[in-house]
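Quick one, T. Sequence first:
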Amino acid sequence: MSKRTAPEVNAGSMADIAFLLLIFFLVTTTIDKDKGIARFLPIEKNPEPLPIKEKNILPIIINEQGAFFVKEKVTPIQEISAIALDFIDNGGATTSELYCSYCQGDRNPASSDHPEKAVIAIHAHRKSAYKNYVALQNELAKAYNTLRNRESQRLFGYSFTTINQEVQEGRYKGDVEKVKAQLKQIRELYPLLITDAETKNQKF
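C-alpha cells:
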C-alpha cells in the first residue's frame, strides 16, 4: 500500500506578501512628533555675563509644590501673562537712546526701560513638575505674541502669529522674502528674552 504524501505549500510568494505588508504599515503608521518647548539657544558671543539693571529683570520662581512666585509674591498662573506683558511693554526709559516710541505701557521708571532690555528670569525648583514649567512658558509666549500681533497689525495690517505659522508651514501665498523681513522686524521690536539663569533675588 503506497504512502500518502502531504501536499507542499508554495511559499514562493510569501516574501513578496511580507514586503507588501511592510510597505503598507510604513505608509499608514503615524509617528508622534517630539513634544517640547520651541526655543533656540543664542550663540555665545561674550562669555562674560553682561550687567543688567535689577529693574529690567522680572524674576519668576516655581517652587517644589508647583506654586508660582513673581517678585516673591504668590501669583496664579492665569495672571502671569498680563504681568509679563506690562513689564515688557513698560518703556520706562527717559533717555533718547533707550526711549521706546512704540511702547504703550505705564512708563514706570521703576520697571523695565525697553523691550530690548526686559529680561524674564525663571528659576524652577528641581523637584517641580515639568508641566508647570511648560505652562509658565506658554503664558510668557502669550504675552510676547500679544505684543507682536499688536505691532504687526499697526505696521503691516496682519496678525504676526498667523502669518508666521503660514510661513513656517509653507502655506503663505504672498512674497515670502518680504514677509520674512517684516516678521524679523517685529521680533526685533519685542525680542524673546527669557533666561533660566538665577538672579540674586531668586530664593525659595
